[in-house]
Amino acid sequence: MQQTLLALFAHPDDEAFGTGGTLSQYAAAGADVTLVCTTRGEVGEIAEGTGATPETLGEVREAELRCAAETVGVRELIFLGYRDSGMAGTPENADPRAYVNAPADQVVSQLVGIIRRVQPQVVITFEPNGGYGHPDHIAIHHHAVAAFHAAADGPRYPEQGPAWQAARLFYTAIPRSFFLRMRDEMDALGMDTSGFARFEEGGGGGWPDEQVNVVMDVADAVEAKWSALNCHRTQFGPGNLFRRLPEPTVKEMMQREYFALAWPEPEPGARFDDLFDGM
Ligand SMILES: [Zn+2]
Q: Quick one: 239 exposed, middle or buried, by C-beta within 10 A (0-12, 13-18, 19+)?
């Protein structure tokens, strides 16, 4: 079986940390990997020394994602061309071009067309909170879930081609234990960890560990993942948290990627060896 994987995200770099190793590992094994990015990340960070400006950031980040996608072996990279909506509560939220202001039906229709054309067995997107609540992450989550199901429903969006039922929908979901480990590593270096209280039991931060269904061992892809992360120069600058931890520690932590099976709904506590396990 030709393995076909489709990842749906909102910004250049959304794919990098949580799924870069997985995309790379499957691509290296011959899988057909497609990545959709709904915006060009126009209002992201601009790391020092990159030469980007608020005016050029979208263009720069498009190139950064092309670099990262090539590094991990993505066959096709698709930009939907909406504008980055910015963090919650910022003026960019109100921009009429902002992704969050796009009519859901318009986005879902495009994603349905992509799913029906690419015919993936496995689709990946953000979990409902998008990792940390970025409005664009939450938007792609909703649009991806809607499109996953609509693509399988022939009478819906007939102009987008014949129905396709993908076998599995996964959420990339970084578990609470990962953040606690990070806090411990930072504590050991005397760094400020006051922002980590929300990852304590009951704090609501991070994905519940018991709801992780796949822990991908991507040790073989860590170098590719690291190179891909380094393509995202404007976002992965010297001030980035992962740059401030020792590189061997970061690479060790990057060897595992975490997914929750969203559809079909798994038995509580179900574990799979990888995203295509048993298919
Ligand atoms: Zn993002």
A: exposed
Low-confidence ranges of the chain (pLDDT < 50): none
CA distance 152 to 155: 9
Give the distance (Å) from ligand 1 centre to CA of residue 39: 9
pLDDT at residue number 249: 93
Tell me how far the alpha carbon of residue 1 lies from the centroid of ligand 1, in angstroms. Answer: 32
pLDDT at 203: 78
Residue partners of 246: CB distance under 8 A and separation at least 6: none
Give 64 Cα–ligand 1 centroid separation in angstroms: 14
Closest CA to 65 of 247, 235, 272: 235
CA of 40 to the centre of ligand 1 (A): 10
Q: How far is the CA of 137 from the centre of ligand 1 (A)?
A: 6
What are the strands, taking DSSP E only, across the chain? Answer: 4-9, 32-39, 76-82, 122-126, 168-172, 214-217, 256-263
